[in-house]
Amino acid sequence: MGLCTDTRTTLNFLLPQKNLGENDVIEATKGNREAEVKRILTFDPSSRFQVDESGRTALHWATEYGYRRLAHTLLNVPTSSENLQLGQSLLNMCDFRGQTALHIACNCKREDLTSLYITLHSDLNLGDRTGNTALHRAVRNNLETTAIMMCEFGADVNAKNELQWTPLHEAARTGNENILRVLIQRGADLDAVTQNKMTPFLTAFFYYKIASKGNTYSNLESVWKIFIESGCSLSKSDGHWTPLTAAIACDNSFIASILLLNGCQVDRAGRWGRGILQDAFACSEPMLVKLLVLLGYIPSPDEVLYCSKQIPMYSKLFLRLPGLGSGLHRDRQAVVRWLKERQATPPSLSECCRVSVRQAMNVSTGDRSITPNISRLPLPGKLQRFLAMSDFTHYLLD
């Protein structure tokens, strides 16, 4: 990714600054005076390269105000040999904030102009002063057509800004599934981390949590499923959350189960000093507690006691209970009885072997899904199904 700073400094030295008066092409552009702009450009074609006190050209201003006809006029002036020697096109000139006309078109959601600049081969990988490329801006502003078009024209899908955000982080922030898929198909790094050590998976979690009151991030489960199916790391932590603890915190038993079945690592630590099994019991479906234990989590006596004593009043699950006699409540009571039985009976040798093999496979795959590799093992089908937890339905609550 290139930055505009050096090019801009060179141009400011070589090109004339804005002329004040009746031949001011920038002021004529701001006023949308098309005839006057054409007159000035006919008299002095190089005036389109003039910049004002903010480093902006007339094209920057035409873009911000959405004056498409003026943008076409400015771009259709023949390029002189002098400008060719500068090695600079009007499209790639940057203002003092490092923004090209394409950056501004994305910021202002001028998709007609973004399409024009992309097809005219504006440099898609120039970064502004904060390191954001036009693709960062397009994805952040949810400009789906523009973002996909940039990918097709060769934009760097792994470009990082000064906070180490990639376009995939921006897509996780907005929850746009179509952009997510295109970025991933183009080779976006599923495990890129920001300055705060957040992966795209955990970025989606963060913005879901802060947007949940307004209910503006309604497809978290679908976004997470795309990341898992595309091969993201299953256990990568930002120092506070892992994908599994994030799924449990969101009361999403489905995603938590997918993570476990695909072979994620299970950390004992939950939130507020509690074990992860207590969090699962408080926030998720009862079957998730069983799945945790069958995959090697050994509950402490205190955790079993916690589960047997309370259904937390703050749990979303509690709010769904129609009454203490409901089927869900009976399932929770049944899983507590099952946990107590497990305390008295140690895991079988076959279960211990399954846990060990799955953990080794997680390491060998680089913390990616182990499911595709199980079928490649030189083992009988019955053992493959055992390792894949295909028999898990046998353990579901009666």
Description:
It is a single chain. This protein is mainly α. Helix content is 53%, strand content 1%. The chain has 24 helices and two strands. It has helices at residues 5-14, 25-30, 34-43, 58-65, 68-75, 81-86, 101-107, 111-119, 134-140, 144-152, 167-174, 177-185, 200-211, 220-230, 243-249, 253-261, 276-283, 286-294, 301-309, 316-320, 327-344, 349-364, 371-374, 381-387, and strands spanning 2-3, 126-127. Strands 1-2 form a two-stranded parallel sheet. The longest helix is centred in the C-terminal third of the chain and has 18 residues, at 327-344. Mean pLDDT is 85; it is low at 5-20, 312-326 and 394-398.
Termini Cα gap: 57 Å
How many β strands by DSSP? Answer: 2
Mean of all residue-level pLDDT scores: 85
What is the chain-wise order of helices and strands? EHHHHHHHHEHHHHHHHHHHHHHHHH
Q: Please state the overall shape, judged from the principal axes of the Cα atoms.
A: elongated
Secondary-structure class:
mainly alpha
Largest sheet: 2 strands, parallel
Our estimate of the beta-strand percent is: under 5%
Side-by-side strand order of the widest sheet: 1-2
Oligomeric state: single chain
Features of the shown structure:
single chain; 398 residues; mainly alpha; two-stranded parallel sheet; 24 helices; 2 strands; 53% helix
Question: What is the topological layout?
Answer:
Blueprint: E1 2-3, H1 5-14, H2 25-30, H3 34-43, H4 58-65, H5 68-75, H6 81-86, H7 101-107, H8 111-119, E2 126-127, H9 134-140, H10 144-152, H11 167-174, H12 177-185, H13 200-211, H14 220-230, H15 243-249, H16 253-261, H17 276-283, H18 286-294, H19 301-309, H20 316-320, H21 327-344, H22 349-364, H23 371-374, H24 381-387
Parallel strand pairs: 1-2
Helix pairs in contact: 3-5, 4-5, 4-7, 7-8, 7-9, 8-10, 9-11, 10-12, 11-12, 11-13, 12-14, 13-14, 14-16, 15-16, 17-19, 18-21, 19-21
